[in-house]
C-alpha cells in the first residue's frame, strides 16, 4: 500500500520529464527510512529545512497534490507503475471477494447446524413422517364429543416373534368405533411352556397417517409382562380415535384401521426402545 | 418397530400409551366383566357404541382390584354415561351413547 504512494511522491518530486525509473526512486531510499517517515526524506532532498517529527508534518508540508499518473502515461516506465497500481487494485478486490466467499461458507455451515432442530420443529408441527402431532394432551379425552357420522372399523392383528412361544391372539377380529369415543378391546395370551416367560410388545397402526390420530389411553405394550407356565390372561387395550380425524382431508377415504401387536421375548439386558422422538 | 426399508417415505412411530400399561390380571378377577362385554359386542355385531356401559364396568372392576390407577370416569371418556341411577341406564343404552 505504501508503494504507490511512494512512487507518486518519487515521480512527482523528480519532475515530469525526468524518466527516472521507479526502481531507482526506491533504491535511493532505504526501506527503513521510508518506513519510518514516509515523506520526510523525500522532502529533505528538496532542500526543506528542519526535522520532521511525524508523517502528519510531512503530509501537511506537501505543497500540491501530486499530478495524476495518467498524465505520464506516455512513458514506458510510468505505464509499468500504472500497471502495478492496477495490480494492487485487483489484489484488493480479490481479497474482498475471498472474504465474501469465506463468509458464505461459514454461513452455510451454520445453517446446516441450525437445520436439525428447525426440521424437528417443522415435523412436529406438520406431523410429517408420522411423528406425534404436538398438542396431543390427555385433557381432551374428558371434553371430546364423538363424531357419530363417521364409523370406522378397527381390525386387530396379533403377532409373535418366531422364538416366542406364547399363543397370542385377539378376542375380536374387528370393532366399529367413531372418532371421539373411547373403546375397549381384548387380546388373549397363553403360555404353553413349563417355564415362566417374560414378553414385551410393541404395536403398529396401518395406515401410517392414521397412526397419529390413534391414541391409546392404556394398553399392555412397552412393558414387560410375565406369564407363568400354562397361564392364560386377558390383555385389554383402551383407546380412542382423535375427533380431528374426521376433519383431516387426507383421512377422508380411510374406513379401516388395523391395530397390530407383536410380542417379543424379553431377554436380560435387552430393552425395547420406548417410543419417543428424542 | 417399523422395518426401515423405506427411506424418506413415512414411517410409523409408535407412541407410549397415555396412562401406561395395564398390569396383567393374573387371577382373572375381572374376567366376568370381560365376558359380559365380549358377549355384548357379539350380540351387537361389534359396535362399540352399544357396549360402552360394559366397558365402563370392566374398567371400574379393574380400578377396584388395584389393576388400574383410579381415575375419574370423565377422564376416560365416560362422561355421558357416568351418572347412572338405574332409570338412566336404558336411556343411555338406547340412545347408543
From TrEMBL, chain A:
It comes from the Eukaryota. The keyword Membrane applies. The chain crosses the membrane at residues 97-116. It is a single-pass membrane protein. One of its GO terms (cellular component) is mitochondrial inner membrane. Its main location: mitochondrion. It is found in: Mitochondrion inner membrane. Keywords: Membrane, Transmembrane, Transmembrane helix. Pfam families: CtaG_Cox11. Residues 70-90 are annotated as: Disordered. GO terms for molecular function: copper ion binding. HAMAP family: CtaG. Interacts with CNNM4/ACDP4. Interacts with RANBP2. Exerts its effect at some terminal stage of cytochrome c oxidase synthesis, probably by being involved in the insertion of the copper B into subunit I. NCBIfam families: PRK05089.1. PANTHER family: CYTOCHROME C OXIDASE ASSEMBLY PROTEIN COX11, MITOCHONDRIAL-RELATED, CYTOCHROME C OXIDASE ASSEMBLY PROTEIN COX11-RELATED. This is Cytochrome c oxidase assembly protein COX11, mitochondrial. It comes from Clupea harengus (Atlantic herring).
TrEMBL record, chain B:
It is found in: Cytoplasm. InterPro entries: COX19 (IPR051383), Cys_alpha_HP_mot_SF (IPR009069). GO terms for cellular component: mitochondrial intermembrane space. Residues 1-11 have a biased composition (Polar residues). One of its GO terms (biological process) is mitochondrial respiratory chain complex IV assembly. Belongs to the COX19 family. This is Cytochrome c oxidase assembly protein COX19.
Amino acid at each position: 500500500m505504501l508503494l504507490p504512494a511512494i512512487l507518486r511522491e518519487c515521480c512527482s518530486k523528480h519532475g515530469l520529464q525526468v524518466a527516472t525509473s521507479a526502481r531507482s526512486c526506491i533504491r535511493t531510499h532505504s526501506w527503513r527510512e521510508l518506513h519510518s517517515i514516509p515523506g520526510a526524506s523525500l522532502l529533505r532532498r528538496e532542500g526543506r529545512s528542519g526535522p520532521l517529527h511525524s508523517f502528519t508534518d510531512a503530509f501537511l508540508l506537501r505543497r500540491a497534490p501530486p499530478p495524476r499518473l495518467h498524465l505520464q502515461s506516455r512513458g514506458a516506465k510510468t505505464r509499468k507503475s500504472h500497471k502495478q497500481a492496477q495490480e494492487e487494485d485487483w489484489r484488493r478486490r480479490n481479497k474482498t471477494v475471498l472474504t465474501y466467499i469465506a463468509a458464505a461458507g461459514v454461513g452455510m455451515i451454520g445453517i446446516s447446524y441450525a437445520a436439525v432442530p428447525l426440521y424437528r420443529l417443522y415435523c412436529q408441527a406438520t406431523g410429517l413422517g408420522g411423528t406425534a402431532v404436538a398438542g396431543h394432551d390427555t385433557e381432551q379425552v374428558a371434553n371430546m364429543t364423538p363424531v357419530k357420522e363417521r364409523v370406522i372399523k378397527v381390525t386387530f392383528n396379533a403377532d409373535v416373534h418366531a422364538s416366542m412361544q406364547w399363543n397370542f391372539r385377539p378376542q375380536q377380529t374387528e370393532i366399529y368405533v367413531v372418532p371421539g369415543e373411547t373403546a375397549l378391546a381384548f387380546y388373549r395370551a397363553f403360555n404353553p411352556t413349563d417355564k415362566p416367560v417374560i414378553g414385551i410388545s410393541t404395536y403398529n397402526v396401518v395406515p401410517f397417517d392414521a397412526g397419529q390420530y390413534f391414541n391409546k389411553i392404556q394398553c399392555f405394550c412397552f412393558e414387560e409382562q410375565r406369564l407363568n407356565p400354562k397361564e392364560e390372561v386377558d390383555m385389554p387395550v383402551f383407546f380412542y380415535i382423535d375427533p380431528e380425524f374426521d376433519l383431516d382431508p387426507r383421512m377422508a377415504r380411510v374406513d379401516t384401521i388395523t391395530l397390530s401387536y407383536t410380542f417379543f421375548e424379553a431377554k436380560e439386558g435387552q430393552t425395547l426402545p420406548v417410543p419417543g422422538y428424542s | 418397530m417399523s422395518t426401515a426399508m423405506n427411506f424418506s417415505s413415512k414411517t410409523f412411530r409408535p407412541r407410549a400409551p397415555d396412562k401406561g400399561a395395564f398390569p396383567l390380571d393374573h387371577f382373572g378377577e375381572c374376567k366376568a366383566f370381560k365376558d359380559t362385554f365380549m358377549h355384548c359386542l357379539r350380540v351387537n355385531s361389534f359396535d362399540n357404541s352399544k357396549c360402552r356401559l360394559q366397558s365402563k364396568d370392566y374398567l371400574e372392576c379393574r380400578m377396584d382390584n388395584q389393576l388400574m390407577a383410579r381415575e375419574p370416569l370423565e377422564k376416560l371418556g365416560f362422561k355421558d354415561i357416568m351418572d347412572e341411577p338405574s332409570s338412566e341406564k336404558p336411556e343411555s343404552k338406547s340412545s347408543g351413547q
